[in-house]
Design brief:
Length: 143
Amino acid sequence: MLFAALAFILAGCTGTPGSPNEGVAGSGLNPHFFRFPAQTAEYDSPPVFLKGDAPPYPWPLLMHVPRPIRGHATLSFTIDERGRAVHPHTVETTHPYFASAVATAMRGWRFKPAEKAGMPVAVVVPHLRFEFTEFVGGDPLKQ
């Protein structure tokens, strides 16, 4: 199994609609959110993001603080040969709930896997960063 180490940082859990880092809680991620090198020694064609939602703002933080806090989570993970995001690992986070929200959202992400010589290969993504700046969608306690 080949692994490609892609050194890039992706940002933005809450962005402005239409921006490359668009990711409103519960919404689908913009396909341009994920940028991969076109070709490396480990693969001939990069993975392609197909579908998945942005991580939501963690509910426990909404319930236990006077107002939502800002923070971030940086995780690494692998896109396996089947195009699934697996093996999330927290690289850095301002609060464990932020990392947990990203890891949970990853379960639903699907990619067209990277390929080498026409065969799917696993790709390690070493840094995926999401910014949690605010709860989007009004007062969650009134919903």
